[in-house]
């Protein structure tokens, strides 16, 4: 993958994460507005489980941004499993607002469909190209130039820098990094 493609992939993943954060925020607003009605206020244990669910979803967004492939699939699975419940609820919220509902109904009529759309947009960006390229696991080939061939020391320094970049992007584990670093230094 070229540097331009890598940058475009990164931009798409950042956009996707902004969509996913927006989705989380709007769903939280819809939840708070819905709980503002005394009949809908949950028990304390329910509030703890809701908090844990939001924390897990936030964790997934952070991991998606760092390039963890499992996180985007976990987010997709949660979205697909939740849609049979979320879509009818959003339709009901819009219907209540159109029937002359309260101010709460108007907030729900906007927030419920909006967070669903943002969720789908975010997932679309991480599962289509160029965003999906961010999650490729293959290590880029260590590149050498003609100048590196002439100077073995600078070639090793370049390879060490590339190795460090792979570690920083979490494309290789710390253990593999240390092992490969030791191999390169042994050649020096």
UniProtKB/TrEMBL annotation:
Membrane-crossing residue ranges in chain numbering: 16-35, 41-61, 73-91, 106-127
Keyword terms: Membrane, Transmembrane, Transmembrane helix
Top-rank lineage group of the source organism: Bacteria
UniProt protein name: SHOCT domain-containing protein
Organism of origin: Coralloluteibacterium thermophilum
